[in-house]
Amino acid sequence: MSRRVRFVYPRFSRHADVHPELRETVPCNEYFGGPSLGIAYRAAMTPADWQIDFRDDRVEDVGLEDPPDVVAISSFTPAATRAMELADSFRARGSKVVMGGIFPTTCPVEAGRHADALVLGEGEGVWTRVLADAWSNTLQPIYRSGCPVDIESLPLPRVDLYIGKENGSYCPDDYPVQLSRGCMLNCSSCAIPAVLGRTLRTAPVSHGLRQIQQLEEYGKMACLTEDTSFFPGSRQQRAFGELLDAIGDRGARMRVSYVGISMPLILAQTPELFARLRRAGITMFYLVGGFDPITRGAFTGRDTKSLKRAHDAVRRAMDEGIEPYTSFLVGNEEDDEGVFERILEFADRAGLKKAEFAIRTPYPGTPDHDVLLRSGRLLHTDWARYNDANVVFRPARMTPERLLRGYLELWRGFYRSRAGLADLDARARTIQF
Predict the structure, then answer these.
(1) Does one domain contain both 419 and 338?
(2) Would you say residue 2 has pLDDT above 90?
């Protein structure tokens, strides 16, 4: 008898979905990337006697009229409402539903009302047991690995499932590559420590290289978004340097679209590492702002040292030949109504070509969420609006309405003088919004 498992990636609203005017304001293509790697890793560990089916709810029908034996739904917070709706619909049609990902891990009580079983945290250590229990009708309500997953034992993720869904309107030029799991830091807006643990575990260089080679075989680039790769003196930084060398040794055959980093980490790198980045063909940083001490202080109008360091970080990247495509987060506790004008002034003075803007969002599992929940400043828990494009809390130094208006002013103000981006090639003019 055939055993069927369907992995489902639920849809969610992005910035321009919530604010369609951005499509008129921003002279760029919208970046519409592939799903996170959670499903791809679970699929790679699925036993051969299970028939695998993958549905991307963003681009296709999820197949409610053809329910399989097991439906595995992975979701982060913006997709949680849709994930729970789909879970209810599949269960009503007789499928057993297993939910995992960031949202079920951080909100198990709510997610558990819509699933037969939850996989909390990393799922690779329990996934084969979940499937066996589902087939024998002995599913438990909660599955959690007893210890962190040995990242060295992971197979290559099944990114072919994602690439197989591409069509004329959905065709990413890059997909994520995972180089580590966990983080020892406690950044206010990040849920990684709560979901993946506070121990930074490094994948073997060979695993990262094989992931990139796999994408290369499909004509795709890799995006490396873990700024943990730049922690000075860490094992992860050493492994990242070795990976850069391996990429550089292969020359133009292996491509990386961008690397994620923060301003403090740009300033902490040696000239040697920048040389290795250039040799590997890295030409763009995804420069994340609003989480670190420099960018949280730089635009307050009261911290000239942080403002200078922010300029120094951007200048350092440019001087090293790497474009800093910068993301600005607004709505932090330090931000007053003048923050929007100060960010625009900084962007012009620094010579930034591309930027994106996001509203501080207190995702479950983050220190931000705990602080705002305890202080009674959350406006609601409509999870579909927890997507960096809506104000879901009461800011400290302005009204929610002013924060939303300022966020839209940033998009308009920044791109008003950058209409020429529309004339660049597709990759050069693509951003997230």
Answers:
(1) yes
(2) no
